[in-house]
């Protein structure tokens, strides 16, 4: 095996946790990873992108800028990793051309800007794997909702594109707690590289060709986390959580199948697997946002209070539109959509979340 | 950048790779044989390969009569029985012989005299014979070949970035990938290339076309190679792929119909069949490997893919093709052995109809791309999505060195196929018959709502569309197509009235029963609904999303 040069693009907590995790692997197995590079996009860029999007849409985004790169490290157990993290080579954009495998974890609204900046230094030999749990909303320049993988293909010369999803939250990577990820890519090579650089220690890596499925499952998890937050504050217990996870998976599967994904993906690690992790109270910004909304805190105020990247509200909107466009029923998404738009009281939303007029589980 | 050409505008190319073909043919056959053998043996043992080929051929030949077969039924049976008793060496020898025979059968030929005759003499002669005005009544000066060629150029219009393509043809190897509706497409393409100053290409043609002695003679001598689509075993497919790769590596401009077969439904190809087209990718990788000293052989010129749409106001075989489509939807398609193109009378009628109408056929070349679907500059440089130069070789790197990887390359080819499909949608030129068929088909659907296609085609229907309504429908469609930036052909861009007249004249000039005709009361009525459906499919398929 020849060690790969790996780069991480992104300044958020997950990106940092991943860089730390990769460095850990590099120390122990230089034959797998020869070098770890870390590029943090400038904060102005992320902020600008965030504001652009907000002015375009009625559903407000979070007050992200403060959060990027500033997330307080919740866990104390990661001090060893923190020490290691300092040895990750921080790089400029131009250095990206040396990387063979690049992980991308930046907020969805800034993806295009970051990619446009990086594009001159990217080339066809590279693999780019993103871990972004959202899609790019339609805008004036591009009238369609765009998957992140499509945006990568549109903005950069890279063809070998992958996506990561699964129950592996930042704290899991930081603490080397057992976790798993699925790498979706049309290319076997990409899956093999993901296994080479990520698998081992505490992390299991699986692969699939269903790129779109993994992407949409990942994006769906923020919506389910939001719904779970609402359910949590109302003290609904485990069965409600189970309903959200399984029916949420079914709902996103319905949409995704119409876009060319495989249903199975949603009942595997990328779907149900990640949903289970996302509906737990630990660490998820969207979950916290849901709890605040459940307490009838207005969206803008709730976002301010959470103070971190919340993909949920934007994804609710996009999933609602997508479902409409491909003619599929979306009950959980629609209930949340109404709630976010203040058209539903929490209680109505809840009733809508947990009620159905379709009784065939396969429909 | 886009230019329409008149034939007289260009000097035909005088120096092109196919001129070397006769000399190189033995070497090509030999190289193909050796490499195909190597490829086959690296994947499997000879006894399995021979066994599979024998069994498939025995089954096929027992069911149908043999026609110019490489081996007869009894030969196959003998070979099959002998497999068990032979050593590996003997089997490899047998396999070598078999592959050699296939290569010899597949490899085409090229004769400059025949080619010149076919491209310079036949078209004026045809236009002379088939021009609606009798040759006797033509003024004397019209009998000059030049005048006749100009007349032909009005009927068959060539469009596209031709300067760009001519430049690239000098630098590299062109792979033309036209849409496919008719058996006349390859001669039409041959004419279009010659008329626009582009070099002739080699191309694969179904073996059934070679059985016609006249057509066969021309095809054999104008660079066509033979593809026997009845042979299903892998060995034959490997031979074809190797042959195609070898000639691409040697710089012969090629043409593939990536739809695989004529579009039965009349739709623009959405699914691109990647079989032989994939050899442009493998040949490219081989070129990079030679450049890097990883593989031996002469340098391979860069390969450029050129999507082409062939747009015809009438399709020679339309009636048979659509009938076949409706019969076979969802099932494996059979190879039509006997359609309109085998009936001389029909061909003559068709050509006469074509010669009557300005812009009856529009051949539109799209922007050239590299084997991964990137745009290519005049200098032959590949461009990324935002116009930045990209280094093609890197896409094939494995640990910094170019290497073929079946799964990756298959995926790349899918993406290239999608890019070709998008180019087809962009570059399709719509002609009056398509527009009128679309307008009338919509009326048929409104008149027979809520039923499936088959019943819609058969249920009794007496539909007369008044002239004024038809014109307003037509105008609406024209505006919609313009808004979506589709190309309207020379006579489809006129007033609604002109379009309707042009379409009715075309429909009435060839098919057994016209798709639409005018009633005495000046309304338009629907004739052959299958044809109507067939011609409107061209427009309908432009909305297909990937």
Structure, explained:
The complex is a heterodimer of chains A (363) and B (546). Chain A is α/β, with parallel strands linked by helices. Chain A has two domains: 4-208, NAD(P)-binding Rossmann-like Domain (Rossmann fold, 3-Layer(aba) Sandwich), CATH 3.40.50; 222-353, N-(1-d-carboxylethyl)-l-norvaline Dehydrogenase, domain 2 (Orthogonal Bundle), CATH 1.10.1040.10. Chain A contains 15 helices and eight strands. Chain A has helices at 13-28, 43-56, 79-85, 111-118, 148-155, 170-175, 188-198, 211-233, 237-258, 269-278, 285-294, 299-306, 312-325, 331-340, 346-353, and strands at 4-9, 33-39, 89-90, 101-104, 127-130, 160-165, 179-185, 203-208. Chain A has an eight-stranded mixed sheet, with helices on both faces. In chain A, helix 1 (13-28) packs across helix 3 (79-85) and helix 11 (285-294) packs across helix 12 (299-306). The radius of gyration of chain A is 19 Å and the shape is globular. Chain B is of the alpha/beta class. Chain B has three domains: 3-12 and 109-147 and 154-427, 3-Layer(aba) Sandwich (Glycerol-3-phosphate (1)-acyltransferase), CATH 3.40.1130; 20-106, no CATH class; 430-543, no CATH class. Chain B has 20 helices and 17 strands. Chain B has an eight-stranded mixed sheet with strand order 1-2-8-7-3-6-4-5, with helices on both faces. The longest helix of chain B has 23 residues, at 21-43. Chain B is globular. The two termini of chain B are 27 Å apart.
Could you name the key traits of this structure?
heterodimer, A: 363 residues, alpha/beta, Rossmann fold, N-(1-d-carboxylethyl)-l-norvaline Dehydrogenase, domain 2, 15 helices, 12% strand, B: 546 residues, Glycerol-3-phosphate (1)-acyltransferase, eight-stranded mixed beta sheet, three-stranded antiparallel beta sheet, 51% helix, 11% strand
């Amino acid at each position: 095996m020849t060690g790969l040069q790996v780069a991480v693009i992104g300044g958020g907590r997950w990106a940092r946790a991943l860089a730390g995790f990769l460095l850990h692997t590099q120390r122990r197995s230089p034959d797998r990873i020869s070098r770890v590079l870390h590029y943090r996009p400038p904060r102005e860029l992320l902020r600008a992108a965030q504001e652009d999007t907000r002015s375009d849409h009625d559903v407000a985004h979070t007050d992200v800028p403060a959060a990027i790169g500033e997330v307080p490290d919740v866990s104390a157990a990661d001090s060893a990793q923190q020490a290691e993290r300092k040895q990750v080579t921080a790089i400029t954009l131009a250095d990206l051309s040396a990387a063979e495998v690049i992980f991308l974890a930046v907020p969805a609204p800034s993806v295009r800007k970051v990619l446009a900046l990086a594009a001159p230094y990217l080339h066809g030999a590279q693999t780019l794997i993103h871990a972004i749990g959202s899609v790019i909303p339609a805008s004036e320049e591009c009238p369609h909702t765009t998957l992140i993988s499509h945006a990568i293909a549109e903005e950069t010369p890279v063809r070998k594109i992958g996506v990561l999803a699964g129950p592996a939250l930042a704290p899991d990577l930081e603490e080397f707690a057992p976790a798993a990820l699925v790498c979706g890519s049309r290319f076997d090579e990409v899956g093999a590289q993901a296994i080479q650089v990520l698998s081992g220690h505490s992390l299991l890596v699986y692969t699939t060709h269903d790129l779109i499925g993994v992407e949409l499952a990942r994006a769906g998890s923020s919506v389910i986390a939001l719904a779970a937050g609402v359910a949590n504050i109302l003290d609904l217990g485990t069965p409600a959580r189970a309903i959200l996870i399984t029916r949420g998976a079914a709902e996103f599967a319905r949409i995704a199948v119409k876009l060319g994904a495989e249903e199975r993906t949603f009942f595997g690690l990328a779907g149900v697997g990640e949903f289970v992790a996302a509906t737990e109270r630990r660490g998820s910004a969207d979950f916290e946002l849901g709890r605040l909304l459940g307490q009838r805190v207005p969206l803008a105020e709730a976002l301010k209070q959470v103070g971190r990247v919340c993909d949920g509200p934007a994804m609710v909107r996009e999933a609602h539109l997508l479902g409409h466009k491909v003619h599929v029923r979306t009950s959980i998404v629609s209930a949340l959509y109404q709630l976010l738009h203040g058209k539903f009281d929490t209680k109505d939303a809840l009733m809508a979340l947990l009620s159905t007029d379709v009784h065939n589980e396969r429909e | 950048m886009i230019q329409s050409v008149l034939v007289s505008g260009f000097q035909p190319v005088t120096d092109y790779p196919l001129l070397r073909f006769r000399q190189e043919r033995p070497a090509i056959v030999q190289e193909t044989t050796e490499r195909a053998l190597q490829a086959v043996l690296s994947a499997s043992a000879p006894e399995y390969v021979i066994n599979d080929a024998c069994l498939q051929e025995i089954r096929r030949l027992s069911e149908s009569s043999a026609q110019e077969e490489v081996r007869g039924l009894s030969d196959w049976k003998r070979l099959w029985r002998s497999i068990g008793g032979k050593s590996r060496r003997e089997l490899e020898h047998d396999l070598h012989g078999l592959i050699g025979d296939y290569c010899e059968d597949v490899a085409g030929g090229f004769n400059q005299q025949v080619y010149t005759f076919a491209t310079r003499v036949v078209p004026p002669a045809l236009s002379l014979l088939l021009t609606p005005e009798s040759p006797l009544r033509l003024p004397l000066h019209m009998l000059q070949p030049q005048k006749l060629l100009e007349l032909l150029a009005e009927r068959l219009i060539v469009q596209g970035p031709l300067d760009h393509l001519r430049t690239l043809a000098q630098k590299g190897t062109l792979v033309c990938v036209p849409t496919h509706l008719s058996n006349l497409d390859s001669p039409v393409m041959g004419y279009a290339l010659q008329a626009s100053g582009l070099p002739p290409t080699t191309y694969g043609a179904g073996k059934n076309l070679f059985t016609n002695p006249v057509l066969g003679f021309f095809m054999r001598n104008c660079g066509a190679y033979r593809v026997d689509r009845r042979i299903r075993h892998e060995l034959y497919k490997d031979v074809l792929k190797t042959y195609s790769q070898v000639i691409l590596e040697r710089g012969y401009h090629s043409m593939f119909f990536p739809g695989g077969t004529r579009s039965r439904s009349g739709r623009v190809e959405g699914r691109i069949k990647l079989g032989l087209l994939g050899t442009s990718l493998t040949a490219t990788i081989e070129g990079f490997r030679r450049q890097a000293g990883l593989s031996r052989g002469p340098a391979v010129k860069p390969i450029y893919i050129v999507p082409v749409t062939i747009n015809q106001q009438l399709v020679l075989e339309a009636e048979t093709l659509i009938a076949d489509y409706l019969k076979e939807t969802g099932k494996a398609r059979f190879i039509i052995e006997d359609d309109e193109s085998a009936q001389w009378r029909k061909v003559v009628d068709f050509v006469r109809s074509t010669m009557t109408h300005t812009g009856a056929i529009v051949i539109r070349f799209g922007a050239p791309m590299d084997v991964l679907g990137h745009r290519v500059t005049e200098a032959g440089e590949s461009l990324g999505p935002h116009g930045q130069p990209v280094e093609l070789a890197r896409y094939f790197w494995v640990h910094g060195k170019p290497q073929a990887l079946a799964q990756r390359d298959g995926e790349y080819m899918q993406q290239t196929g999608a890019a070709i499909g998008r180019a087809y949608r962009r570059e399709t030129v719509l002609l009056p018959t398509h527009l009128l068929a679309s307008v009338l088909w919509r009326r048929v659907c409104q008149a027979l709502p809520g039923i499936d296609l088959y019943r819609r085609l058969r249920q009794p229907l007496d539909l007369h569309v008044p002239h004024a309504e038809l014109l307003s429908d037509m105008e609406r469609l024209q505006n919609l197509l313009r808004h979506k930036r589709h190309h309207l052909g020379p006579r489809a861009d006129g007033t609604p009235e002109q379009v309707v007249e042009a379409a009715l004249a075309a429909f009435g000039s060839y098919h057994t029963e016209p798709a639409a005709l005018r009633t005495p009361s000046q309304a338009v009525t629907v004739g052959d609904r299958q044809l109507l459906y067939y011609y409107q499919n061209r427009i309908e398929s432009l909305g297909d999303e990937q």
